[in-house]
Amino acid sequence: MKNTIFTGSAIAIITPMNADGSINYDVLGEMIDSQIENGTDAIVICGTTGEASTMTDDEHLECIRFAVEHTAKRVPVIAGTGSNDTAYAVKLSKEAEEVGADALLVVTPYYNKATQRGLIAHFTAIADAVNIPLVLYNIPGRTGMNMEIATVKELAKHKNICAVKEASGNISYAAKLIAECGDMIDVYSGNDDMIVPLMSLGAKGVISVLSHVIPKETHDMVQYCLDNNFAEATKLQIKYLDLINNLFIEVNPIPVKEAVNMMGVNAGSCRLPLCDMTDEHKAVLRASLEKHGLIK
Fold this sequence. Notes:
Blueprint: E1 8-12, H1 25-37, E2 42-45, H2 57-71, E3 77-80, H3 86-98, E4 103-107, H4 116-129, E5 134-138, H5 140-143, H6 149-155, E6 161-166, H7 171-181, E7 186-189, H8 195-201, E8 205-208, H9 215-226, H10 230-239, H11 241-246, H12 254-262, H13 279-291
Parallel strand pairs: 1-2, 1-8, 2-3, 3-4, 4-5, 5-6, 6-7, 7-8
Helix pairs in contact: 1-2, 3-4, 4-6, 8-9, 9-10, 12-13
């Protein structure tokens, strides 16, 4: 097995915005500090939840640089550098390495998709271009394509491809992935509602949205699993299931940004085409936060 990037709970952190739509680095720094203080084991910057797809090149790289410098080696920083253009993903990945990212999160190509042979060529080109670990990101609900287990197995032979963020939501697929590739590559849950199921099969942790609102409890859930105390982990998974579901009541990261705002953190709005939540959904989300004592 290659060196593990992190074990435990990572946050796929939002990108706070000012009223004019620019990035609010002061709040981002405060959020990073709060996460680390509450046990979060890694920071994932510029992922799906971070709205990387609406960032300019300069913003994307500056966010990564800021996260690296502000985190200051307290926990690993994993930079989202995926693209549906292999050449651009290579360029961005090299730049992320240069500014100090500890690892990269690289999503499967979206829109134009690829064959499985194309996926192998795509990820291999990125991994060949850098000297830090890659986390493959499988999220067919976003990209319209799924990595076959044989593809992951082939990619796991590369020295720099060390992990998979598995967000298909398919427990059967995840079980087969861990069974066939788990001795070659680490697996992280990409779904908060499947933390305990995937970790019971051997996953090393979660890349979480839930951690924005309950970082300590998310970390504790994962730690219980790592300690083989699945009874206590299951209690937390079930206790917060309504909150997890309501953080995805609309397209991520719309609800989690709203939740953070409700909790008093000035996260701002999402960038278009993501718009504000409906009043109906806001009421549902607020009720969940109130139920768990996160707001009054």
